[in-house]
Specification:
Chain lengths: 321, 284
């Protein structure tokens, strides 16, 4: 009481951020507690689980393998640097010498990079198709009636069913020595084909639910089709479109791992598959590292989309989470 | 009377599984330039339908609307609408909402800076300059309606159509906006057609009150000429016998000739009141 009387200003300032800090601390400690319980259960289960590849890896084994993967990446990188250094020297001595790219084994981290590139190009491709298509379908009840059954039919098809078809089509129509590797194309196309549906459906719904009042505004102003779409329809549908995009990106990331396994695209999916085929005593722990990284990247991608969604959503009364 | 806006034999029917439903028929109305007309009637009597037909948002199945010797068959900015629920685009600021209309209507006729001045001018007219960069969600209902009016006025319409523009507002805000509309109309001389439920609003603002019969097959019941000098002051009018006479005429049309709501049976109402009293005593 006395302190408050002496110094009222700071105490009111404290009062304003203290609840926030308390909430943050509470949330953080609960997250950590959940994680700790999970790790303890995992460790206890792993200890009692014998497999054909030895004991199932616990948290320690996985941490060791993570370190090993980091070390491998660094070794590979310094080798690559050395290679280019030597090639440079050779070229200086003899300009006629052939310059070649380094062809070392892809490391875990370069595989992560490949996976991210593949998933983003597939996702981008899907969005570039799904948003305009959704707008066109959503604006016309006729085309909606025509397209909706087809969408419902194609939506539930598993990536594993598409993959052989896409593989055959790509190898028939794309040269093996093209700029992009076939495995990359197959993976990206599979991702696109499986992940476009939520964006397409949400865009259709968003576009067809423009409030009648706003459509009347557009009519009174005699906006032409393009301005109507740009000024009224698209902004009105933006929250729905971004909900769709976020769902799509989640699916894209899930599909990607399966696609890379089968298409042998040098990403995380291939890493898991290769370790599985390798069957060494470290394999399971390395797969566990990949699983954790896959989850973490999925989480980060979702958070990224969420903040994007928050940034573009004009309806601030809706709490996005 | 100079012919400006003419509704002749306007009727509309909607197809239903049980055959066509006639919502409106034989609506005849001739409106002079600069007149303020209110449409009054019970809910569901087709007031909004009449307004939407004039706006071009609905097509009359019979008869037609002629504005300045031209038939109305599609919506257009010369018949600007102030919607009941403001209908501002929630993702645009106040300024941008008005700008959308100005850019569309005056494209090629005004320079960029002329447009800016015109937008600012219209916002000033409804006293909303201070909130030009706010989003609709950040301002009150009355302010949103002001912006809706500014947007409509900014189209420089020949006819301003207002669909219960103050229906969703509290009494004080409503009175304030009614005064604003009177002032603006005196300044600009627009023809105004206003839908209202509010008898005082109708008498205060109108040159003529068009009273509609109950639907289905609603039509114009009576038209009441309001001969009160302008500008009209609500306080002075409260004691004015002529004003009260007009009020009475509208009320008697609505509650005697076109009565819709059955009076509560007095006995049962009293009984339920008694019951409530008993309950209150028990609680006490």
């Amino acid at each position: 009481m006395i302190i408050q009387l002496k110094n009222p200003m700071p105490s009111s300032a404290i009062a304003s951020w203290q609840p926030k800090l308390r909430e943050l601390l509470r949330q953080g400690s609960l997250t950590l507690a959940g994680l700790a319980i999970f790790v303890l259960c995992w460790a206890a289960l792993a200890e009692n689980l014998q497999t054909s590849l030895g004991q199932f890896p616990g948290p320690t084994a996985v941490a060791i393998q993570f370190k090993a993967l980091v070390a491998e990446h660094q070794t590979e990188k310094s080798r690559e640097e050395l290679f280019y250094q030597r090639q440079q020297e050779r070229l200086e001595k003899n300009p006629e010498a052939v310059s070649r790219p380094y062809s070392g084994r892809p490391t875990f981290f370069s595989q992560i990079q490949t996976s991210l590139q593949t998933v983003l190009s597939g996702f981008l491709l899907a969005s570039l198709f799904a948003i305009p298509a959704g707008v066109l379908i959503g604006l016309s009840p006729l085309s909606y009636s025509a397209a909706n059954p087809l969408i419902q039919l194609l939506k539930p098809i598993s990536p594993l069913a598409w993959l052989p078809l896409i593989t055959i089509v790509v190898s028939a129509s794309y040269p093996a020595d093209g700029l992009l590797s076939r495995s990359y194309l197959v993976s990206a196309l599979t991702v696109a084909l499986c992940s476009l549906w939520p964006t397409l459906i949400n865009t259709i719904v968003g576009v067809s639910q423009v409030p009648a009042d706003l459509q009347n505004v557009s009519k009174v102003l005699r906006l032409n089709w393009f301005r109507h779409v740009r000024a009224i329809v698209l902004p009105s549908a933006v929250p729905m479109i971004f909900t769709g995009l976020r769902l799509s990106l989640g699916i894209a990331w899930m599909v990607l791992i399966a696609a890379e396994m089968l298409a042998q695209n040098p990403g995380l999916g291939k890493f898991v598959w290769d370790e599985f085929q390798n069957g060494s005593s470290d394999s399971l722990a390395r797969i566990c590292v990949a699983v954790a990284v896959i989850g973490l990247i999925g989480l980060l991608l979702d958070r990224l989309m969420l903040s994007l969604q928050k940034a573009v959503s004009w309806d601030k009364s809706v709490q996005l989470r | 009377m100079q012919k400006h806006l003419e509704l002749s034999q306007v009727g509309i029917s909607f197809p239903t599984p049980k055959g066509p439903f006639v919502a409106l028929q034989n609506v005849n109305l001739s409106i002079a330039k600069g007149e303020i007309i209110s449409l009054i009637g019970h809910s569901g009597c087709g007031k909004s339908t009449v307004l939407n037909i004039i706006a071009g948002l609905l097509k009359a199945t019979e008869g037609g609307v002629i504005l300045n010797h031209k038939e109305v068959n599609e919506p257009g900015p010369e018949r600007a609408v102030v919607f009941q629920h403001h209908s501002l685009l929630p993702w645009l600021s106040v300024y941008e909402n008005v700008a959308l209309a100005v850019r569309q209507v005056f494209a090629g006729k005004m320079t960029k800076s002329q447009m800016q001045d015109w937008i600012e001018h219209n916002l000033a007219l409804v006293q909303m300059s201070h909130a030009r960069d706010k989003k609709p969600a950040e301002i009150s209902g009355g302010m949103k309606q002001r912006v809706g009016i500014a947007r409509a006025l900014a189209m420089q319409p020949q006819v301003l159509l207002m669909d219960e523009p103050f229906g969703a507002l509290d009494a004080l805000t409503r009175a304030h906006l009614q005064d604003s509309v009177q002032q603006i109309q005196a300044e600009l001389g627009n023809t105004v057609i206003l839908i209202t439920h509010d008898v005082d609003e109708a008498v205060l603002l109108s040159d003529r009150i068009v009273m509609m019969t109950n639907g289905p097959a609603a039509t114009v019941g009576e038209v009441l000429q309001i001969d009160l000098p302008r500008p009209r002051d609500r306080l002075a009018l409260a004691d004015c016998p002529k004003y009260n006479h007009y009020r009475h005429q509208v009320l008697s049309f609505l509650y005697e000739k076109q009565r819709k709501v059955e009076p509560l049976p007095v006995a049962s109402a009293k009984a339920s009141q008694d019951k409530r009293l008993v309950k209150d005593e028990v609680r006490a």
